[in-house]
Amino acid sequence: VHLTGWAIEPDTTDPVQVHVYVDGAFATAAAAGQPRPDIADAYPGWGAAHGFAIDVPVSEGTHQVCVYGINVPTGPNPLLGCRTVDVVNHAAVGFLDSLSGTPSAVVATGWAYDPDVAGPLQVQVWVNGRHLGDFQADQSRPDVGAAIPGAGNSRGFSVSLPVAAGTHRVCLYAVNGPSGPNTLLGCGTVSVVNATPTGFVDQIAGGAGTVAVSGWSWDSDAHGPIGVHVYVDNAFAGATTTGVPRPDVAAAIPGADGTTGFALTVPAAPGKHQVCVYAINGPAGVNPLLACGTTTVS
Ligand SMILES: [Ca+2]
Ligand SMILES: [Ca+2]
């Protein structure tokens, strides 16, 4: 409840204390010391610092709110006024329009609105029973603005929520403002599938202070070149990306593009070494070992 008013005390020009009672119980006290030039004009000599503006937290429902001026130095405290107010907390509303999976995320779209909240409404994300985080519903949705008077055209959301590969139960809630029970917008089960790269290492060949590595690798959901990392004796030795023409692979694997090949040369000390080649999963995830081999560097 928001209260405004003024109070003066004939025995002092100082700000008067006012006490607020809600449903007969003391709620809060405040000094009536805010500028009210109209009071200064009406009571010459007392100055303008006699206004008050007080916010009192109350529960939803009907309340009687009364304000008393506190007598100085003592004496009966006069009632300044009482009002009966209805306090309404509207439920948040909205809808989860879609849930879908990418190789590394759940994508959710929808809208959320609470008539009690002027700014963007918070939306909570729960994944497999755990609170993953919140985001704001502040994107363009003119259809919502057209359907709900007062909502405005910016109550939508379209968010990408990073999750590991697997099957996830996802629920979204509109957060009630300023408090109260949240509204379930919707739930869904989403499969996040991240394909593992495949490939083959054709060559691991020791040279003079180097090891030459070549082959091919392809990740069906990386949509482009992927990384290839080379380890010599378990230590990272070099990296490249696919891009070398391999029409034979494109012909053999449906969906594979024509440039899945890779070739690189990494430095190595003279002697016998174990060389291992890994494909780098796109967009994220476990990076599979393509092959290990032993070679001798001169
Ligand atoms: Ca509300
Ligand atoms: Ca992948």
Write up what this structure looks like.
The chain is mostly beta strands. It has helices spanning 37-42, 142-147, 247-252, and strands spanning 2-6, 16-22, 25-32, 34-35, 49-55, 61-69, 79-87, 93-101, 105-113, 121-127, 130-137, 156-162, 166-174, 183-192, 198-206, 210-218, 227-232, 235-241, 261-267, 271-279, 289-297. The protein is elongated, with a radius of gyration of 35 Å. The strands form six sheets. Strands 3-2-6-7 form a four-stranded antiparallel beta sheet, with no helix packed on it. The mean pLDDT is 95. Strand 15 and strand 16 (210-218) form a beta hairpin. The structure holds calcium ion (2 copies). One calcium ion is lined by residues 103, 194-195, 219, 221-222, 281-282, 285. One calcium ion binds at residues 89-90, 92, 114, 116, 176-177, 180.
SSE inventory with pairings:
Layout: E1 2-6, E2 16-22, E3 25-32, E4 34-35, H1 37-42, E5 49-55, E6 61-69, E7 79-87, E8 93-101, E9 105-113, E10 121-127, E11 130-137, H2 142-147, E12 156-162, E13 166-174, E14 183-192, E15 198-206, E16 210-218, E17 227-232, E18 235-241, H3 247-252, E19 261-267, E20 271-279, E21 289-297
Antiparallel strand pairs: 1-5, 2-3, 2-6, 4-5, 6-7, 8-9, 9-12, 10-11, 10-13, 13-14, 15-16, 16-19, 17-18, 17-20, 20-21
Bound molecules: calcium ion (CA) (2 copies).
One calcium ion (CA) binds at residues 89-90, 92, 114, 116, 176-177, 180.
